[in-house]
Design goal:
With 310 residues, the chain is α/β, with parallel strands linked by helices. The protein has a single domain (9-309), classed as P-loop containing nucleotide triphosphate hydrolases (Rossmann fold), CATH 3.40.50. The protein is built from eleven helices and nine strands. Helix 7 (192-206) links the parallel strand 8 (176-184) and strand 9. It is globular.
Amino acid sequence: MAVCVRMGHKVLVAGDRSHSGKSTVSLGLLISLLEIGYPASELAYIKPATQCVSSTLTARFCESVGIASEHIGPLVFYRGFTREYLDGESGEQAESDRRLVRRCARAVEKIAKGKSITVIDGVGYPSVGAVVGCSSADLAVACAAPVLLVGKPGVGDAIDSFQLCARYFEAQRVPVLGAVFNKVPLNGYYGLEQCSRYVRKYMAATRPRQRVYGLLPKTEKLGTLAGEEACGLAFKHPPVPESAGPLTEEDREAIELVRGLFREHVQTKQLVEDLKAASARPSGWVRQLPMFPASQPEARRKQSQRRYSQ
């Protein structure tokens, strides 16, 4: 598998499900990076694999401020794509696996050239695209991009979903930086303060390397952004438009809302520090997964047995 040349730092934004808010978090990160001093010329945004072939707010924002962007990448999961792929010969499928992830990796490498930070917007949940050998984990490996997960509100379900997704990446030794939990109610039993307390408590005790970079409160004004992740489904790979289009007044209001939410609730500077550290020393950010006893060396098998008998 081809690996992108290291040029600056890349972070892949992945969700624990479709419509988790990956594009909103990608947008917020780009806004925040500008605010903490990164010039637009040193930033890039790309969605190398997508189901959406329409203009998105994130792409329109990038164009408006001069951030290099590509929101319709080389791989489009148009209707019928998977069936066409599976109808091919097995040998052709194996080559397609390599070709698709190489094509996406090359697109990331091209746009990341000369940039300090490139935000890679994932598609769906982490294993979307695995059927064609180009899941978010495959792409993270090919592009040497640590992962930021976008999680759901709540406590138990939020943590369980984080674990499910984090382990998917860790199975391929991809560094998981941590999470931003999205759409959290401001008040109530599962309100922002309570969720923050318990999610952080769990992470500190069980996953001290991974951080909770923030919890974003639910707001109806941003409800339409999630829908853009699955908009404009096509029946073939469309031509890439010359422009994402101008910002509307509604766009500007949404951008200011995201800007305010990230200022108040997300630790962007800490995320950047961790991204640099994880890129420099990936092994320090990958959690060692327990193994089924019969598949591991004797010393590790006994250690694992002691761990689970305590």
